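Journal club side-thread
Mid-discussion, someone asked how the predicted structure for our own chain would compare to the paper's figures. Pasting it here so we can look after the session.
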Amino acid sequence: MFSCLDRFERFLLLSVVLYVRSTISGKETFSESYKADNFVVPAKAGYSDPRGTSSDITYLTDYTLSDFNHAQCGIKTVSLPFSEMTEKGLRIGLERKNMESKPKKLADFCRDCSEGLAGLENNDARIDFVTSVFEPLLADTPLFREILENVLEGRPYPDVRHPTMFDNELILHLDPAGRFSMRMFLWPPGGFDPVHDHNSWGVIGPVNGRLKVRDFRRRDEDDDAPGYFTGVMEIGRRIILPGMSYRVLPLNEGIHQTGNPTDLTVIQISIYGKKQSDRSYVNIYDEASGRIYPLYSPPVRKRMLAEKALEALAAEKMST
């Protein structure tokens, strides 16, 4: 039987067998924290959204190599329940299989980008290098047309099933060495994300249309606004045209809002570097209320809610 299977199919079969065996044997356990790609989610972590469940902020992306990246590529040992590691192994195989159909021009670009980033030790150097090769790539409209046609025709690449935060986000590349990721965002007319920060450096730019970017800084960094956090203030805005790019900095240095001011859908390509923070979330800044609150990725938030649900069940059992 095994002679009829290629290496990938054997890997999937073995993974499923091991997963079933580990589940049946009752060895599936939960550790004190979930760790993957520098994501650390305390078991008792909570979540509070002062704005409720507004749909315009629910799916803000972390814009970083998330917990589906490095562990998925098999380049970092993670402390996970065995069956969860097996699940990640399945995703490794599926992604590698899908990436075989990536356009050669994009595959070559990603390889060269990773090699160029290898010896760079600061964010300015990384951003300068990526900008130099990224802006010419943005001018390759046929390349991105091919990718979009793949989506319409249901082809393996890009994998529309890959977990993302934005429903308009597609993963184009996850660097096996963990140095960067590449994503495509499709912004509808008038579509903007909330004001937010990042956990990594990045370079973004449009393939078509115009991209509007507003820059902010926290008021609590202003000597004229001492005390508890009182909001953000806009310090600049710009329009990014095709062939141009915008540099993203981590944490308080890179608070901004991005979106589409036109009446046509805009294609945005983003390259984000390796995570440079221990946070498992990004900060959202509400201009109207002056509040700041964390937003977690959907997989992390689901685990947190599951934890809370188990606590609720345990509390009910104790009270009966």
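Post-session note: The domain at 34-76+102-319 is CATH 2.60.120.10 (Jelly Rolls).
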